Automatic annotation (TrEMBL):
Biological source species: Candidatus Pullichristensenella stercorigallinarum
UniProt xrefs under HAMAP family: Phosphofructokinase_III
SUPFAM superfamilies noted in UniProt: Phosphofructokinase
Annotated site, Important for substrate specificity, chain positions: 113
This protein's name: ATP-dependent 6-phosphofructokinase
Subcellular location: Cytoplasm
Binding site for substrate: 134-136, 171, 178-180, 231, 275, 281-284
Cofactor(s) the protein needs: Mg(2+)
GO BP term (any one): fructose 6-phosphate metabolic process
Class of the enzyme per the UniProt entry, highest EC level: transferase
Active site as annotated: 136
Top-level division of the source organism's lineage: Bacteria
Protein encoded by which gene: pfkA
Length: 357
């Protein structure tokens, strides 16, 4: 007999349901008795005791369903130790709900912030398994997060669509891609979509180098240029600012996002007509791609395996093609960023893609 809790926290992504299905199928196939409690809207449900008892039937038919059947919300890690407006100690409340339901383990699906709280709960003595979710692919200790590949597919599709119209109009197009503070999504979708210029936070850009790359294409007789711009892309000047000065600059920032600032500079310096496309939350939506369905099933199955063996306190990740358990304490709070020396960056540069550096 096992009693497990499940929750999904932070921004959603395509393969959350597929992953939970893997966990529950893996357990129900191997246990005669299983109780599953789903906490609603992420940690909020765990704090305020908002949960539902689920059966294995709830996890049938959800392999291809995007979003999360449990709902989700953002509960910042830095606020976890701060009592709520009624003075409730959130960490204590989460522990009480865990003990009240006599859970054997709490399975937590989420990104970096979620992982930090998962580790905090582990330090507080709860049995935790974390599963790495995010379209940003920025979780340390796993080569891949579920949701990432599905988002790459959508962002690539967006660039593909832009390609045909860009070619007809002789314009410069900027496609702004999600990814928070890292460039994995932009790097992959940019290469897959054949972008001419890729701008990511880890490689601050020089606007003059960006202009040079556009002018080079014009001189070669290519009428259009496509830039894949990470939402966190940053210029060399801004990257050189202190945290305080950068914050100050952003306070008076007149653009909706970095692409609009870039577009204004490019238009001014080249005179070429510019268009901006921001696929936004589309990148987290829809069905998980087959790669993510397989990854999620594997990660979920391995989480079930760990629970059956009563091995807790781990994130289940994939390293060099093998699903592995990684001690939560070793990875929580670390970010996996793109190294400018990454082979993928080097190969992209080799075929002439500019990073504006
Ligand atoms: O972490 C996933 C992500 O989609 C980031 O790429 C993006 O910066 C952020 O979430 C958007 O968050 P929200 O859904 O809260 O607007």
């Amino acid at each position: 007999m096992k009693r497990i809790g499940l929750l999904t926290s932070g921004g959603d992504c395509q393969a959350l349901n597929a992953t939970m299905r893997g966990v529950v199928k893996g357990l129900s196939h191997n246990l005669t008795e299983l109780e599953v409690y789903g906490f609603m809207d992420g940690y909020k449900g765990l704090i305020y005791g908002d949960y539902r008892m689920l059966t294995s039937r709830d996890f049938s038919g959800i392999l291809t369903k995007g979003g999360t059947i449990l709902g989700t919300s953002r509960q910042p890690f830095k606020m976890m130790r701060v009592p709520d407006e009624k003075g409730l100690d959130k960490v204590e409340a989460m522990k009480q709900n865990y003990y009240k339901l006599r859970l054997d383990c709490l399975v937590i699906l989420g990104g970096n912030g979620t992982q930090k709280t998962a580790n905090l709960l582990r330090e507080e003595g709860l049995n935790i398994i974390h599963l790495p979710k995010t379209i940003d692919n920025d979780i340390y200790g796993t080569d891949m997060t579920f949701g990432f590949q599905s988002a790459v597919d959508i962002a690539t599709e967006a660039i593909d669509c832009i390609h045909t119209t860009a070619a007809s109009h002789n314009r410069v197009f900027l496609v702004e891609i999600m990814g928070h503070k890292v460039g994995w999504l932009t790097l992959h979708a940019g290469i897959a979509g054949g972008a001419d210029i890729i701008l990511i936070p880890e490689i601050p850009y020089d606007i003059n180098k960006v202009i040079d790359a556009i002018n080079r294409r014009t001189a070669e007789g290519k009428g259009f240029t496509i830039l894949a711009v990470a939402e966190g892309a940053i210029s060399k000047e801004d990257a050189a600012l202190s945290k305080k000065d950068f914050k100050e600059k952003m306070r008076d920032y007149k653009y909706p996002s970095v692409s609009y600032e870039l577009a204004e500079q490019i238009e001014k310096k080249t005179g070429i007509e510019i268009r901006i496309t921001v696929p936004g939350h589309m990148q987290r939506g829809g069905s998980p791609c087959p790669y993510d369905r397989v990854l999620s099933t594997r990660l979920g199955a391995e989480a079930a395996n760990l629970i059956l063996k009563e091995q807790y306190g781990y994130m289940v990740g994939i390293i060099n093609g093998k699903v592995k358990k990684v001690p939560l304490g070793e990875v929580a709070g670390k970010l996996k960023v793109v190294s400018p020396d990454d082979q993928l960056v080097q190969h992209a540069k080799l075929i002439g893609i500019s990073f504006g550096d």
